[in-house]
Records
---
Amino acid sequence: MRGWFYRMTHPQAVLSIIDELRKVVWPSRQETANLTVVVLVVAIAVGIFLGAIDFGLNRVVEEALLP
């Protein structure tokens, strides 16, 4: 195994990186936008769900344990 500096200064390593990047299937602009919306919706839904659980448990603790 060679170090990072060796790999970056030798053309074969750079050519191998370029070859690998050519194999990558990049998403289209529309796919990226759709997936971004999905991530945002799921993040908001999980946040609301966890917030509701937190609120509910907080109420239980305040009512049951604190006079």
---
Amino acid sequence: MDNCLFCKIIAGEIPSTKVYEDDDVFAFRDINPQAPVHILVVPKQHICCARAVNAENSACVAKCFEAIAKIAKAEGLDNGYRVINNCGEDGGQTVMHLHFHLLGGLKLSEKMV
């Protein structure tokens, strides 16, 4: 998508602090971290949000979760972490490109969801 912030980050048009990349997934540090480790994991294929996941593109989600496991291990999150997805405006999604927040590095509050 031409105006998608995350598509531009994936393409290298906007700088980011990349922590992982493969053929299907790109991951980078959040610029406004909510935990010591706060990484955004995005499929390279533009999918607007979780409600747009279907049989044709659901493999992208699986690839994201495979990457999340690798990233968490590389970041030393052996004691646990949280993965969050916001869907749509009412769900708090601010960039309309499917993405997952990987949060960790401390004991997260049960109230933080």
